[in-house]
Amino acid sequence: MGDQNKNLLLATALSFIVILVWFVLFPPEQQAMDPIADGAVAEQAGGVAPAPPTGLDGAGIPDAPSEVAAEIPRVAIETPRLAGSISLQGGRIDDLLLRDYRETTDPDSANVRLLQPVGGQSAYYALYGWSPGGSLGFEDVPDASTIWTLAEGEVLAPGQPVVLTWENDSGLTFTRRIEIDENFLFTVTEGVSNAGEAAVRMTPYGIVARHGRPDTVDFFILHEGVVQMSDGSLEESKYRHMADFPVVERERARAEITEVTSNGWIGFTDKYWMTTLIPTPGQPFTAVSKYVPNADIYQTETRLPAVTVEPGQSAEMQTMLFAGAKEWETIRNYQNDLGIDRFIDSIDWGWFFFLTKPIFAVLHWLNGFIGNMGWSIIALTLILKAILFPLAYKSYVSMARMKELQPEMEKLKERAGDDRQKLQQEMMTLYREKKVNPAAGCLPILLQIPIFFSLYKVIFVTIELRHAPWIGWIDDLSAPDPSSIFNLFGLLPWAAPVPGSFLALIFIGIMPIVLGVSMWLQQKLNPAPTDPTQKMIFAWMPWIFMFMLGHFASGLVLYWIANNVITFTQQYIIMRSHGHKPDLFGNIVSGFRRTPQAK
């Protein structure tokens, strides 16, 4: 192989190592704000909706232990996928467990808790209400301390809505109808009827609030925090960035306010879970993401246009609340069936979305047939290799033709002697005459980089890979191989090192070792480079990759093993078809021989 081609291959390999090292280095309650003091919110001005009363606890809910909160009347939530309750104080949705998801792979571990009542740690809830306007005061509208009456229904379930009511002393009756489907979508209809003698004006709002900064994965390739769609524009803000929002005096907080003209949504996203406020598509609203520093509360809000209710009249506003797991199919169905604009983009597809989206769609489709994500990853690898095969074929043919030029290349080196410029010129002339592209062998390797990164992203962020088993000891394809040389892969009577510890970095598992061996065998299809430096680099490369990739998700390591095996098979067959029989055993033996030192 010519020096130019060797240098290109070496540069590509080293670049790939740098990228992977980069991945490794950047890895795998309190009292809330007081109500607005002036007692009434001004009419909408300049297109900005009035702020709702943000004094959630300050409005009357004590920052008390959870046993105090337990005394408040509640309405149970019972669906095939959710369990929890609604507090009649404030009518807030603040207690939610996900039946299908557990904290660990242990089937007896606790269910994942999404929402948490005020009074315990890390309160997280959805709250709806009305901001008063005109002659109304805060005492005339229900707030976070209001005790609602359960007027209809007993348990919130699919097809079994509940209706809450509250009346003030001015002839206004407020109703809140809450419905839920069989997955993760609540529909909340806020109603008000006016039996008084004067028209009233008010603004409906929805809030999702988190008390204190939540624990996050805090990995640079994953977004956790506010996720917002505003008329087709996706906006994201991490929790730490919310403290840098502009100060908005009328909000008594740091906030970003966006006017949405027709379609959008806003909420908080975690790695696998999300709670999102969704006004009816086509409905204009004001989207607010807010941080209240003195209370350490993070909020997202939707403020709908103000309504005027004449005496004897009534008004209704309907919004939706997604609270659950970020399942691709479930979210896609909500997007398609309900017209929720780009709801599928609430999943963090990243910069390579043009690859991650179709890769996951195919993987999900394969899993629907196969029923196992591990085998689906292998099938996906076969499809990707089939798509790239024409390019790979040209590459392997070019490499085979480069081998045929070796005798002529040696003659060129003898004629050129130490004249490197002359040698390069004559080599390029030879390539043109023989129609050989010396860089063709690098192209398949370069194409693997974005595919590798995209699959890494898919495995890391999609909940479908969370706790997904493959075979035997691999019970979570989103986690590293749990086996370890330290205890001979479970044969010795002591535990493997704790993941993330120094020993775990050294004593890798079965799959990383298979990965290293597959890369090593792929190398041995060709003789080792004659240059001692290149030979050393190529000799170490499989084992460096073995340790580097060994602590990535098992699904990613499985893909790389499958990719290596398929590539090995393709190269072997193509080389045989061009009259070159790879001396695999001979190349392995020669690799253990010491290279003679130049005299």
TrEMBL record:
Interacts with the Sec translocase complex via SecD. Specifically interacts with transmembrane segments of nascent integral membrane proteins during membrane integration. The keyword Cytoplasm does not apply. Residues 74-361 form the Membrane insertase YidC N-terminal domain. It is a multi-pass membrane protein. Required for the insertion and/or proper folding and/or complex formation of integral membrane proteins into the membrane. Involved in integration of membrane proteins that insert both dependently and independently of the Sec translocase complex, as well as at least some lipoproteins. Aids folding of multispanning membrane proteins. It holds the Pfam family 60KD_IMP. Keywords: Cell membrane, Chaperone, Membrane, Protein transport, Transmembrane, Transmembrane helix, Transport. Belongs to the OXA1/ALB3/YidC family. Type 1 subfamily. Its main location: membrane. Residues 373-576 form the Membrane insertase YidC/Oxa/ALB C-terminal domain. This is Membrane protein insertase YidC. Coiled coil: none annotated. The chain crosses the membrane at residues 6-26, 373-393, 436-456, 502-521, 542-562. It is found in: Cell inner membrane; Cell membrane. It comes from the Bacteria.
